[in-house]
Amino acid sequence: MEKKQLAISDEVSASYYNFSEYVVCVEVMKNEKSLGSFCSDLSQFEEWDEEEVVELVKNHIIQVEKAENHRNDHSQYLENGMEIKYHKHWEDFYCVEVFDQGKEVGSFCADRSSFEEWMEDEQQLSEVIKSQLTR
Q1: What is the DSSP string of 41-63?
Q2: Which end is more exposed in the chain, N or C (fewer Cβ atoms within 10 Å of the end residue's Cβ)?
Q3: Between 67 and 51, residue with greater pLDDT
């Protein structure tokens, strides 16, 4: 999976990559710390110009930083021994943090409908988590 870099400021950068044939994800970094990622339909992503992507990244940072202070986390342990903590990031957007033996090993965000579908099938959820951790 090829990642394309986008420098936004001295503190903020983003990289985007094809998550699947139809989905593009944007991973956001601030001060070399991952603030997770957000994903979009490929056709929608292709319509955005660089300025719109920069605005989406900035909004993502605001939402993540606000959510870190006021979020209502839910936890779930998976059969493979990992734990996920998830919360509603925006109305139709969830963010997930992945823990292995109590240590955070990754995070990602997804639209509500995809997230709810993954939560119905632990095998599918495990596959999504695995794909996010191996990028």
Answers
A1: EHHHHHH--HHHHHHHHHHHHHH
A2: N
A3: 51
